[in-house]
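Help needed: design a sequence for this.
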């Protein structure tokens, strides 16, 4: 179903107290899912998860207070869907950063709202708009499952007659209490590409501590990450499937000032850990083939548990 008529969306999919559509900022349709394990908000614009709050926990995702909600511009925060390229387009740098999927309205294909598990499926298919950016036929599906954990699955299917190359990311912005008191475990043994220096770097052999701008693509890893947030006394496990690249990003002071849709001080309260297919981990899909990129989040009390 086309994804901008709130009354029709609620008529077809709403379940009182468990699944409700409303008109959000910028007129963007927002679906709220709620069950015993927590709540989640997602907008059909960009297939973009805006918030995730496990029961009894503070919000898990960061959204900038300066974010815009304007068609054609990306939302700053939550879980942007970077697709069908990560970073600048290799074919034409004038094309949107991180692809076009996060800049379009997706269809609502299914909503299931149970007491302990809620699911939503959104879709994007090629049409004359997408073909202006990317000359391939595709079906893109986002499947979000809110249960004890949060699972976000992005499946690409090549519906065309020739192969295409895909890079992508679930560009998740995590809310943290104080970036200066955060440790990120799981990538200690993994080399990375430093996007700031454009140089390959050896494994750090230590948890990641962020004390300046960090923009890294960790390569050839399927490992979980663990965010230990001392200020909020919680830990967030970030697992993934269908990905051999993990991106870690914090803009720090100077880049924060250069982003109009991001508060100058907001770098203190966020870090991005992204499940990606990027750089050497590009995916080649033949006609009829599919690939699923998934990120699974689980939040626990106690930074050191
Ligand atoms: O994932 C890290 C990154 O590629 C950074 O280089 C920075 O550009 C960030 O994404 C945000 O990109 P955006 O296009 O959302 O402003």
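Sure. Designed sequence:
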């Amino acid at each position: 179903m086309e994804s901008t008529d709130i009354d029709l969306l609620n008529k077809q999919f709403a379940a009182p107290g468990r699944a409700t559509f409303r008109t959000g900022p910028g007129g963007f349709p927002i679906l709220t899912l709620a069950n015993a394990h927590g709540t989640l908000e997602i907008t059909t614009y960009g297939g973009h998860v805006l918030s995730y709050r496990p029961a009894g926990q503070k919000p898990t995702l960061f959204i900038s207070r300066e974010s815009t909600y304007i068609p054609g511009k990306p939302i700053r925060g939550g879980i942007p869907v970077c697709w069908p390229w990560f970073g600048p387009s290799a074919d034409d740098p004038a094309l949107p950063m991180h692809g076009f999927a996060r800049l379009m309205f997706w269809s609502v294909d299914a909503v299931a709202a149970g007491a302990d598990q809620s699911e939503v499926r959104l879709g994007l298919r090629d049409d004359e708009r997408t073909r202006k950016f990317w000359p391939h036929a595709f079906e893109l599906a986002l499947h979000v499952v809110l249960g004890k954990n949060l699972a976000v699955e992005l499946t690409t299917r090549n519906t065309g007659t020739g192969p295409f190359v895909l890079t992508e990311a679930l560009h998740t912005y995590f809310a943290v209490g104080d970036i200066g008191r955060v440790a990120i475990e799981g990538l200690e043994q993994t080399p990375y590409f430093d996007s700031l220096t454009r140089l390959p770097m050896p494994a750090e052999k230590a948890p990641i501590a962020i004390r300046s701008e960090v923009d890294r693509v960790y390569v050839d890893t399927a490992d979980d990450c663990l965010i230990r947030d001392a200020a909020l006394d919680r830990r967030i496990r970030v697992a993934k499937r269908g990905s051999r690249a993990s991106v870690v990003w914090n803009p720090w002071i100077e880049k924060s000032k250069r982003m109009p849709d991001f508060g100058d001080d907001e770098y203190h309260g966020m870090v991005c850990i992204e499940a990606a297919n990027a750089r050497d981990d590009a995916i080649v899909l033949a006609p009829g083939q599919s690939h699923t990129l998934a990120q699974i989040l689980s939040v626990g009390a106690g930074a050191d548990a």
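The first helix runs from residue 6 to 13.
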